[in-house]
Amino acid sequence: MSEPQVPVAINLEQVYYQYPKNGAELSIPAWQVLQGERVFLYGPSGSGKTTLLNLLAGVLSPDRGSITLLDSAFSTLSGAKRDRFRARHIGVVFQQFNLIAHLTVAKNIELAAYFAGNTRVKRDDIAALVAALQLSTDLLDKQAGQLSVGQQQRVAIARALINRPEILLVDEPTSALDASARDAFMQLLTTLCAKLNATLIFVSHDQSLQQYLDVTVALSSLCSPREDAPC
Ligand SMILES: Nc1ncnc2c1ncn2[C@@H]1O[C@H](COP(=O)(O)OP(=O)(O)OP(=O)(O)O)[C@@H](O)[C@H]1O
User: Which parts of the sequence belong to the ABC transporter domain (predicted)?
Assistant: First the structure.
């Protein structure tokens, strides 16, 4: 008997994006990621990793081509529909975490649930997620701006996971951590993703982190082979 087919979570076809300001461009003919796959995406600084994540998060829209996420024609959705889709189905952790410094940890996480129209989230759920990320629940009522970088990073992950997204996009989150904190963080992140069966795209230029993920992809291997169209 054949194995049941794993659905495709992310599908890119002929995606092309160029920054209007300086002409820097990214061109990806085809890329597919299966639901539940945990992908380590690497490439040198300036190769376009963040640009690709921004396209997957709908922060940028491709000039040409299509991005399909979970069977939805994501890149053709209108702004409001794309925002709603992102809030419900995609968790994003940016390099700078983008927490609201003057709000408490609990409020930062609650806001993500609010924007996704997720009214079921209770303080106990937030506390449980924070505890699963090995943060003290005493921090829930502290302002996010008062936490250490490592703590902020975990809050950013909690905020990204509170709506149980099918897709989690994480951009170079470990550069501020020492080696043992980095190991612990990677273990936690991948364990939580496995629990949620979330598709994880983890971007870094630090190749030592690839051991924690299922698949390693060099951004250069996805890009258009045309020599005049760098990543
Ligand atoms: N907002 C922007 N406006 C114009 N050009 C940009 C912008 N952001 C990135 N670029 C350019 O696009 C290219 C890819 O940048 P990007 O930040 O995606 O690379 P990266 O691989 O994530 O780099 P790093 O590892 O340093 O974060 C670079 O040439 C960069 O200068």
Answer: 10-231
Residue with CA nearest ligand 1 atom 12: 24
For residues 25 and 6, the answer to whether their CB atoms sit within 8 Å is: no
64 confidence band (pLDDT: 50, 70, 90): very high
pLDDT, average across residues 55-73? 95
Using the 8-state DSSP alphabet, how is residue 171 labeled? E
Cβ contact 37:94 at 8 Å: no
Global pTM reads 0.91
Half-sphere CA count of 43, side-chain side, radius 13 A: 21
| The 3-state secondary structure of 119-134, one letter per residue | CCCCHHHHHHHHHHCC
Ligand 1 atom nearest the C-alpha of 54 is: 18
For ligand 1, what atom is nearest to the CA of residue 20? Answer: 4
